[in-house]
Amino acid sequence: MVKFLARYLPLLLLTVNCLAQQELPDGLVDISDQISLDVRYATTANFTGEVLYPCQKCVLKKVAADALLEVNTYFEEQGFQLRIFDCYRPLDIQRLMWKVYPDPNYVANPDKIGSVHNRGYAVDLTLETLDGQALDMGTDYDHFGPEAHWDYAGLSESQQRNRGILLEGMKRFGFNPIRTEWWHFSYKKNSGDALNTPLPCKLD
C-alpha cells in the first residue's frame, strides 16, 4: 500500500487539481478555490484607489496555474502558503492602471507589449503562515519605490530572509522575478497576445 501511494499519489493529486480547475476561454483556468486570495484590485486598497475587478479571482494560463499550485504545495511542506494579490489581468484594466500611473518601471504600457499579467503568465504574491499571517517583506504590495526593489540594501535580516525564501521557491518551479517588485513573478514560458477576457465573476 505504501509503495502504491508513493508511486501514484502525485498523479492522483494532479488529477484532483485538474478537476478543480475551471476552464475558461483563451486557455485560461480559474484556480481561485485552491489558493489563498487577497486580490487588492477587487477592493479600493490599491494604488488607484478604485475597485477594478468585480470579484476576487486567480486566473492563469494552465501551464502557469499548474506550476503555481506546485509552488504552493512546496511551501505548505515548509509551513507557509502563497497569498495571491493578482494573476491574469484583462487589458482594459491595464489601460486604467496606465492612465493613473504611466510609469513603465512599475506599470506596463498597454499600447506597447502590455503586461505579462495580460497574457495570463504573471502573478503578484507573498508568503503567509498556514494560519494566515503575512511574512514581512519590507514593503506592502504595490509600493512604487526603491524599497520594493530586490537590490534594496535597507532591509532587516528577517526581511531579506523572507524575500529569499519566496524567491527560491518561485524560481524552483519556473517563475522569474523582476527587479523593481519583490511580489511580481512571471512564468518562464510567457509568449502570446495580451488578452481582454473578462474575469469569471458571478454577479448578483
TrEMBL record:
> Which EC number(s) does UniProt give?
3.4.13.22
Query: What CDD domains does this protein map onto?
Result: D-Ala-D-Ala_dipeptidase_Aad (cd14840)
User: What InterPro entries does UniProt report for this protein, alphabetically?
Assistant: A_A_dipeptidase, Zn_M74/Hedgehog-like
Which UniProt keyword terms apply here?
Cell wall biogenesis/degradation, Dipeptidase, Hydrolase, Metal-binding, Metalloprotease, Protease, Signal, Zinc
Instruction: Name the positions where Zn(2+) binds.
Output: H117, D124, H184
Q: Give the GO molecular function terms.
A: D-Ala-D-Ala dipeptidase activity; metallopeptidase activity; zinc ion binding
Q: Which GO terms describe its biological process?
A: cell wall organization; proteolysis
Show the catalytic activity: D-alanyl-D-alanine + H2O = 2 D-alanine
Q: Where is this site: Transition state stabilizer?
A: R89
| List of catalytic residues | E181
Question: What cofactor does its activity depend on?
Answer: Zn(2+)
Annotated cofactor note: Binds 1 zinc ion per subunit.
Q: Which Gene3D superfamilies match?
A: 3.30.1380.10
SUPFAM superfamilies named in the record: Hedgehog/DD-peptidase (SSF55166)
Signal peptide boundaries: 1-20
Homology family: Belongs to the peptidase M15D family.
PANTHER family tied to this protein: D-ALANYL-D-ALANINE DIPEPTIDASE
Record function comment? Catalyzes hydrolysis of the D-alanyl-D-alanine dipeptide.
Protein name according to UniProt: D-alanyl-D-alanine dipeptidase
